[in-house]
Amino acid sequence: MELTDKLNAQGMTIVISTHDVDMAYSWSDSVHVLDHGRSVFSGTPEGFFNRPREVNAAGLVQPTMYEVNRLAMASLDLPEHPHPKTSSELLAKMSRCRPGRLFVQQASRSEGVPYHATAGIYGPMHRAAAAAGELNIEYSYNGLEGCLGEVMLGRDALLVLDPGLKGQVERRLERLERVFGRRIEVIWV
């Protein structure tokens, strides 16, 4: 999905046909649901997946995060809404600890980054350096999500970012603050 994020950041519209409801829910801005070639829904992912009867009638299931959120919120006696799209958003919704800091850099060096920070890669450009052992990376794939999860647990994280993906990171951070009230200290290095 990193390549699609990069293309989308360059202004391209991405159309994906899938039965993977988890990916469609977490990644899409809009969904168009077909049932035997007939359009049964067009709108936001939340607008569709908040309707379990329509989801089931289309031969689909709600995303895994919906069920995890439902069970976790029931156990904590908290409301289900807003529905998190990702595990880091679920942690943002549930965690009561102070978030860690997110260090973001576009070069494969780690000056100014705490040695104890968990590290992840967002974008394919730096993956070769990580594979060669030039970077100590815990999250080689889905690094943005991994780092945001660590931050929601109160740990510092380093995100090594490909050029052109800064806007995607900013959008994820803005959603965490707007929807879940969790502001993350970001340090661009």
Task: Give me the secondary-structure category.
Answer: alpha/beta
Overall geometry: globular
- Counted by DSSP, the helix tally is 9
Hey, roughly how much beta strand do the residues contain?
A: 15-25%
Per DSSP E runs of 2 or more residues, the count of β-strands stands at 6
**Average pLDDT score:** 88
CATH level-two architecture of the largest domain: 3-Layer(aba) Sandwich
- The string of secondary-structure elements, in order, is HHEEHHHHEEHHEHE
Q: From the 3D structure, determine the CATH topology of the largest domain.
A: Cobalt-precorrin-4 Transmethylase, domain 1
Strand arrangement, largest sheet?
A: 4-5-3-6
Distance between the termini: 25 Å
Major β-sheet annotation:
4 strands, parallel
Overall helicity: 40-55%
TL;DR of this structure?
The protein has nine helices and six strands. The chain is of the alpha/beta class. The model has no long low-confidence stretch (mean pLDDT 88).
Q: What key attributes describe this structure?
A:
alpha/beta, 2 domains, four-stranded parallel β-sheet, 41% helix
Walk me through this protein's architecture.
With 189 residues, this protein is of the alpha/beta class. The chain has 2 domains: 2-85, no CATH class; 98-188, 3-Layer(aba) Sandwich (Cobalt-precorrin-4 Transmethylase, domain 1). Helix content is 41%, strand content 16%. The protein contains 9 helices and 6 strands; from the N terminus they run H-H-E-E-H-H-H-H-E-E-H-H-E-H-E. Strands 4-5-3-6 form a 4-stranded parallel sheet, with helices on one face. A two-stranded antiparallel ribbon has the order 1-2. Helix 6 (87-94) packs parallel to helix 8. The chain is globular. The model has no long low-confidence stretch (mean pLDDT 88).
